User: Which sequence fits this backbone?
């Protein structure tokens, strides 16, 4: 197919990017028309099924991008955002753990799919595999939809607006700490998705089989499941800035040490996958600790803040792929002639003739930058708390 090599890699980033960036657009609608949240769930399921089923009959790559990339993402967004909204209604004190459980669900899919898809593709080919996946979505999701509902009564009338109650809508917009979080979240997003996209290629350059590559991805997602549950639990107990700084700084260290230095063989690569999944994968589960002081018991505001964080992370998801591709191309052009084969590679930086070196450094710097920004946010939050205590003491 013409342009297949350049368009096919766009399907994943386009799909996940749309899902991440849809929050600020879908949240005001389901807040203003709360009764249509459940309608959104059913429409989203239909679109997910129809997109994959139709994509299985396409003969052009552009059509595949449209159906499997764009249309599937729209359906996924209509499923995902209302579920986040319902979560804010059901949980308050343990909302962080509940978020961790929900976000861990995507990690479970990441464990199973790398192990299931290769046999399906080799046995049935891409078209039939897409049809099997579309039918699986219907069989797995539709029976659950009647049980997904909110705790609060949903009015059939249009709400007065998407703005949350009271002064919260004004306070979060003026919160310096929240916007520092958004910047740190964006840097984290620009780094997070790169290893997930490039780990199979890295494993191939280590002369590992496709099965071993799938195991590496599955282990990364396995670590992500554990990390999301653990971070979600800790976000209800620990200062979110301390938790965020610790995970981001540790992820940067893991990137440089386990990926850059030690991933010159299978053991190093698998170690990096598990550690990276555990540390970096849990970041989204920490969001509740940051947003809870701002949203209090208002589920609408909580969903709004989550939508903004999803959007900023989605920007990293969209742009990190072309950035990392450019870095690997730049490195391969400058180092292929000066570095030996993988048999003489003694560092992860040397794999593939050194073409991953700049990309690994880029990922490590993204997480280090995000960690430094959270350190600034932590200082801002401490200053704010001290001023509040000072005013309270003066009033007494």
Assistant:
């Amino acid at each position: 197919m013409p342009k297949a090599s350049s368009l096919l890699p766009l399907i994943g980033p386009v799909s996940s990017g749309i899902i991440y960036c849809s929050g600020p657009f879908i949240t005001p609608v389901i807040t203003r028309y709360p009764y249509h949240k459940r309608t959104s769930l059913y429409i989203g399921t239909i679109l997910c099924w129809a997109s994959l089923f139709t994509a299985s009959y396409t003969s052009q790559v552009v059509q595949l991008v449209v159906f499997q990339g764009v249309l599937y993402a729209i359906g996924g967004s209509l499923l995902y955002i209302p579920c986040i909204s319902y979560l804010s209604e059901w949980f308050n004190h343990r909302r962080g753990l509940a978020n961790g459980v929900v976000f861990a669900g995507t990690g479970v899919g990441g464990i199973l799919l790398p192990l299931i898809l290769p046999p399906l593709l080799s046995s049935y080919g891409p078209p039939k595999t897409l049809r099997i996946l579309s039918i699986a979505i219907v069989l797995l999701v539709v029976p659950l939809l009647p049980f997904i509902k909110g705790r609060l009564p949903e009015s059939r009338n249009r709400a007065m607006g998407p703005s949350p109650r009271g002064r919260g809508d004004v306070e979060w917009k003026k919160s310096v700490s929240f916007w520092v979080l958004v910047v740190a979240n964006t840097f984290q997003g620009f780094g997070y998705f790169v290893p997930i996209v490039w780990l199979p290629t890295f494993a191939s350059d280590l002369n590992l089989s496709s099965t071993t590559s799938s195991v590496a991805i599955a282990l990364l997602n396995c670590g992500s499941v554990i990390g999301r549950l653990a971070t979600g639990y800790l976000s209800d107990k620990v200062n979110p800035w301390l938790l965020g700084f610790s995970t981001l700084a540790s992820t940067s260290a893991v990137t440089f040490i386990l990926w850059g230095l030690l991933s010159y063989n299978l053991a190093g690569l698998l170690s990096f996958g598990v550690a990276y999944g555990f540390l970096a994968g849990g970041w989204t589960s920490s969001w509740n600790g940051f947003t809870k002081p701002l949203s209090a018991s208002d589920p609408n505001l909580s969903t709004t803040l989550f939508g903004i964080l999803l959007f900023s992370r989605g920007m990293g998801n969209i742009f990190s792929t072309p950035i990392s591709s450019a870095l690997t191309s730049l490195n391969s052009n400058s180092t292929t002639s000066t570095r030996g084969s993988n048999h003489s590679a003694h560092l992860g930086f040397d794999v593939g003739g050194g073409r991953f070196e700049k990309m690994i450094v880029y990922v490590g710097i993204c997480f280090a930058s995000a960690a430094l920004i959270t350190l600034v946010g932590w200082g801002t939050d401490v200053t704010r708390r001290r001023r509040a205590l000072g005013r309270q003491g003066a009033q007494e």
Observations:
- The domain at 8-148+167-395 is CATH 1.20.1250.20 (Growth Hormone; Chain: A;).
- Residues 89 and 299 are 5 Å apart (CA to CA).
